[in-house]
Structure formats: C-alpha cells, structure tokens
Amino acid sequence: MIKLSLIIPIKVTFENRFLLKRLANLASFFAKYQTIELVVVDSTPSSRYRKKISDIDGISYHYLSMSGIYSASKARNHGAKRANGEYILFYDVDLVVKSDFIENIFKDIDELKQKAKEAFTIYPCLYLSESKSKLLSKHQMTDKLFEEIKLRYLEGFNDEVLYLAVNTSTILVSKEHFFDIGGYNEVFKGHGYEDFELIHRLYLAYPIVQRAEDYALDFKTPFPYHYQGFRQYFAYYALPNFFKGNYTLHLWHPRPLTKKYYRNREINLEYFLKYLQESLKEKMDTPIRDYHQFIDDLMNEYGFNDKKYCGLKELNLIAKAQKPKFNLKRKIRRRFLNLLERLK
C-alpha cells in the first residue's frame, strides 16, 4: 500500500543534463521505502534523454508533452492525478534531505490526520551556494553535515547558504483535499508564484492565524524575520519544520536566461495579487498572532536564543564586513533581465 507519493517534475535539456544524475541519486536514496512512490512527470523534448529518465530504477514514469512556456502547475497536476498515495508531497529533483526525512514525513501525516482533512504543511529549503554544492557533490552527505550547514546559516553566514526559502513547493497535503480545492492553477506558466497561489488556497481552507490588510503585499527580503504580506502568514506553516529539522537543501544550478520563461513572472504576479485581493472579502475566525514573537518562541524552544544566532534577521558582522566577490555571470544576467524589463 502506497502511503505517500512524491511528485517530481523534470525537463532535461543539453544545458541541464546534470539533472539525470540528480534524479538517479534521488531514486536510489528513496529506494528503501516500500510505502512511497516517486511519480516523475517528464516534459523532456529529446527522446534520447526521455529514454534515460524512464530507464531509472525505482520511479513511476509519466511523459507529459508541453509546448510553449513550461508550466510546473500542469506537470504537478498531471503527476498528482496518477499518484496512488493517500498523501502527496511536491518535490524538486535538485533537493537533498536527511536520512530520516521520510520517517518525519510519516509522522507529519499522522499529525495532519489528527488535525483536519484540510491540514497541510510546508518544508523550508536552504539554497546552497555554487561552491558548497560542488563540494558536496564530491563527498557523502551526512546528517551531521546537514545540521552544520543549518547552524552556520543561523549564525548569520552567507558563504554556504545563499538564503532560506521558507514557503516552498515542498508541500505535504492529502491527495483528496488537493483536488477538492482545485489542484494547481494552470493559468500560471513560466517562473514564479504558482506555489504561493496554491498555498494561498490551502491557507484559506485551513487558517491557523488571522491575516491583516497587508496580506496582499509582495514584499521580498532574504531575512524571514522581516517578512511582510502573504509570506509572513504562510511562514506559520513552514518555520516550525525548519527548527524541527524537517527541511531540504537545494543544490545550486545555473538559471537559464530564457526570455519567455522569465518574462512571464510579472504576469504570474498580477494573477496572484488579484486572487489575494479578492480573498480579503472573506472573513476568518482565527486568532491574531504576533509574528516576531512566533519566531522568538521557536528560537527559544530549540535553543537558538543566543544573540549569535542572527541569521533569520541579518548577516553577522564578519559576513557584513566581507566584500562581495565579483561575479561576471551574475552581472551579465542582471543586465539581461533589466533589458527584458525595459523592452516590455
């Protein structure tokens, strides 16, 4: 009997063919679990690469042809429909986890069942730097190393971890409830906001904190303590998992400068903010909580109340004093994206 289905979209090209190895490693890592399945939704154009993916042992392979701008929403819905598990977990081929990750997921499933059929949870992700990702590829990942990376991040360093993504696509929800609320919204194509929009509807169905008028604010910051708008409200579902040790690491990879893919981000944002604004008309009978107190309580509960653990708020003095390394690729990328904005 399948208890959990991991939904893993993938699209391999010559430029990102390293994903083949990452998927194989992922399948090997999860092979010991008999009650989970890896539902791989492949939209790879090349039949040669598709064959390599379908030949990987331990996956449930499904091909989804997709023309035009890639839609993660379509891929995840396609996978969820073919999942056999009572619960589904949306997953990324670039993620690595600790050895007890699935055991902890099973515990979370039991807890969600006790709460409500609409209950869900989100697993945060530490995005690793290019140098740290390359170093890890040469060594065996251990649980101790996982915790060391987390600790260094909490101490305010940014040489190993670029940032903490609190509200990610790694969402655990019952398959029945996922489709009850309509699944992923397939209006979203290209880069960004499809995960936030799903979390938005999950939040409306299972609110644990009252929202204010700032809910529809798209405020970006690398420091979760300073979240505003929807990111702050969604963090109540995710941050406890980070401190419990239920989080992922994201291996670095180059981001393609695909014109259509990135241009659609602003279109996605318009859709998303419209949905948020419309939802403010609906009242919520949930408690009001102080966000900063919520984080302070988590820090105290897990023994990070010392001032040296400043990473959720700011960089430490050592990191602040370091001169940023010149990165030609990043500079070219930034100029290219700025040019796209001006061409709109």
Describe the protein's architecture and organization.
- The protein is α/β, with parallel strands linked by helices and 344 residues long.
- The protein has one domain (4-343): Spore Coat Polysaccharide Biosynthesis Protein SpsA, Chain A (Alpha-Beta Complex), CATH 3.90.550.
- It is built from 13 helices and ten strands.
- A six-stranded mixed β-sheet has the order 3-2-1-4-9-6, sandwiched between helices. Strands 5-10-7-8 form a four-stranded mixed β-sheet.
- Helix 1 links the parallel strand 1 and strand 2 (36-42).
- Helix 8 runs parallel beside helix 10 (259-279) and helix 9 (230-244) packs parallel to helix 11.
- The protein is globular, with a radius of gyration of 20 Å.
- The N and C termini lie far apart (51 Å).
- The relative contact order is 0.13.
Main traits of this protein?
344 residues, 10 strands, 13 helices, alpha/beta
Q: Strand content of the residues, in percent?
A: 5-15%
Number of domains: 1
Main sheet attributes: strand count, strand direction, barrel closure: 6 strands, mixed
| Low-confidence region ranges | none
**Shape call:** globular
What spatial order of strands do you see in the largest sheet? 3-2-1-4-9-6
CATH topology heading: Spore Coat Polysaccharide Biosynthesis Protein SpsA, Chain A
* Portion of residues within helices: 40-55%
Mean pLDDT: 92
Radius of gyration: 20 Å
**What structural category arises from helix and sheet content?**
alpha/beta
| Elements, N to C (H/E) | EHEHEHEEHEEHHEEHHHEHHHH
CATH class: Alpha Beta
Number of helices: 13
